[in-house]
């Protein structure tokens, strides 16, 4: 998956898209073993940071999205596009 680097401070998704900030990976296992960076799996849980305007219906009206800013979501492991805003992924 490609990473897109942007030099802007804010980003507003369009339509029925959302912007998710990925939660940090676990540093150690339940048994207390510390994991190196190469052994960590990509997280599939994140927090919704921005929400688009919604899906446009056939009659031109918008259908609001079910998620809102601050919700925790589970997403596909290889879904979406990784972006970098300033120093933050």
UniProtKB/TrEMBL annotation:
Keyword Cell division in record: no
CC terms in the record's Gene Ontology section: cytoplasm
Gene3D superfamilies: GroES chaperonin
Localization (cell): Cytoplasm
GO molecular function, one term: metal ion binding
Highest rank taxon of the organism: Bacteria
Keywords recorded for this protein, A-Z: Chaperone, Cytoplasm
Family from the record: Belongs to the GroES chaperonin family.
Functional description taken from the UniProt entry: Together with the chaperonin GroEL, plays an essential role in assisting protein folding. The GroEL-GroES system forms a nano-cage that allows encapsulation of the non-native substrate proteins and provides a physical environment optimized to promote and accelerate protein folding. GroES binds to the apical surface of the GroEL ring, thereby capping the opening of the GroEL channel.
Record text on subunit structure and interactions: Heptamer of 7 subunits arranged in a ring. Interacts with the chaperonin GroEL.
Protein name: Co-chaperonin GroES
Organism of this sequence: Dulcicalothrix desertica PCC 7102
Gene responsible for this protein: groS
């Amino acid at each position: 998956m490609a990473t897109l680097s942007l030099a802007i401070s804010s980003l507003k998704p369009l339509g029925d898209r959302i912007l998710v900030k990925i939660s940090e990976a676990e540093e150690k296992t339940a048994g207390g073993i510390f994991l190196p960076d190469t052994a960590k799996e990509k997280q599939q849980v994140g927090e919704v940071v921005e929400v688009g305007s919604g899906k446009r219906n056939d009659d031109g009206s918008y259908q609001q999205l079910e998620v809102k800013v601050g919700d925790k979501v589970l997403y596909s492991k290889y879904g979406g596009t990784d972006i970098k805003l300033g120093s933050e992924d």
